[in-house]
Specification:
Layout: E1 6-17, E2 20-31, E3 35-39, H1 46-53, E4 61-66, E5 69-70, H2 76-81, E6 84-86, H3 99-105, H4 121-141, H5 157-170, E7 175-179, H6 187-204, E8 207-211, H7 215-221, E9 224-229, E10 232-237, H8 239-242, H9 246-253
Helix pairs in contact: 3-4, 3-5, 4-5
Bound molecules: adenosine-5'-triphosphate and magnesium ion.
The site of magnesium ion has 3 residues, from helix 1.
Length: 255
């Protein structure tokens, strides 16, 4: 498996909401094991692009390929099962459950979910304990393990973002789309989040595609940046080249 192999490819993606062309002919490729950023002004189509890739927007035009397989048209849970996960700009959590329960639930293919096995605790107890340990490790890495018993509705917005990230990592995805993972978290923790993203990439080979407004932090950790403006990719390249791009400066960085 060559390191520069493409894991995700989008071709001519377009989506309109009435007269608004939210995503307008986007084509891009993401390399396996890379960390890529997606930046652009408010309303430029970033979250909608993630919605199209991850299968949560009904009809749209264009194609999405994940590991060479065309995935558009598949329901989002199928796309997740193939190893492509995502987080949302506004965290989606089970608010009536504890922090630990939320992240345990995010673990893939749990034995106790099988109705034939569920009545036989001896068949799933040890797997359940392993899962709880894994969840605790993930929560610890993001500095929220002390909140494990708290009701998810009682934690702060920033902590919800961290919990959502922990949950996404619990599924051992091959690739993760993160929609503003550091919004609402303290600046120091934003650095730590990106450090743990990089660690996850280095240790597990996870590929990341990240929407982020905190450019200073993002640019330190990404290999490649895409700039989107009015639904179109305006520029792409290494962070050092993007900051010098005149079109990008005019459309976004110069704001
Ligand atoms: N469900 C929807 N119905 C109607 N219009 C929508 C819908 N979702 C997004 N839009 C519009 O599509 C455009 C792109 O929105 P999108 O949320 O993708 O932008 P964004 O780049 O993620 O912005 P932000 O940085 O504020 O999160 C905006 O004009 C937005 O108002
Ligand atoms: Mg958005």
């Amino acid at each position: 498996m060559a390191d520069d192999e493409t894991i995700l490819k989008a071709e001519g993606l377009s989506k309109s909401f009435g007269p608004i062309r939210a995503v307008d002919g986007v084509s891009l490729s993401i390399k396996k094991h890379s960390i890529s950023g997606l930046i652009g002004p408010n309303g430029s189509g970033k979250s909608t692009l993630f919605d199209l890739i991850s299968g949560i927007q009904g009809k749209f035009s264009g194609s999405v390929f994940f590991e060479g397989k065309r995935i558009n048209g598949l329901p989002s849970h199928k796309i997740f099962e193939l190893g492509l996960g995502r987080t949302f700009q506004t965290p989606r959590l089970f608010m009536g459950m504890s922090v630990l329960e939320n992240s345990m639930l995010a673990g893939k293919k749990q034995k106790g979910e099988n109705p034939l096995i569920a009545p036989l605790p001896e068949r799933w107890e040890s797997a359940e304990i392993d899962l709880a340990k894994k969840a605790q490790d993930q929560l610890r890495a993001l500095e929220i393990s002390h909140l494990y018993g708290q009701l998810s509705s009682n934690i702060s917005g920033g902590q919800m973002k961290l919990l959502q990230l922990a949950n996404a990592l619990m599924g051992d995805p091959k690739m993760l789309l993160l929609d503003e993972p550091t919004a609402g978290v303290a600046p120091r923790l934003a650095q730590d989040i990106f450090a743990s993203i990089e660690k996850q990439r280095d240790e597990k080979g996870t590929t990341f595609f990240i929407i982020e407004h905190r450019l200073q932090v993002l640019f330190k950790h990404v290999d490649h940046v895409f700039v989107i403006h009015q639904g179109r990719i305006l520029a792409e390249g290494k962070p050092a080249d993007i900051v010098k791009d005149q079109q990008v400066i005019e459309a976004y960085l110069g704001e």
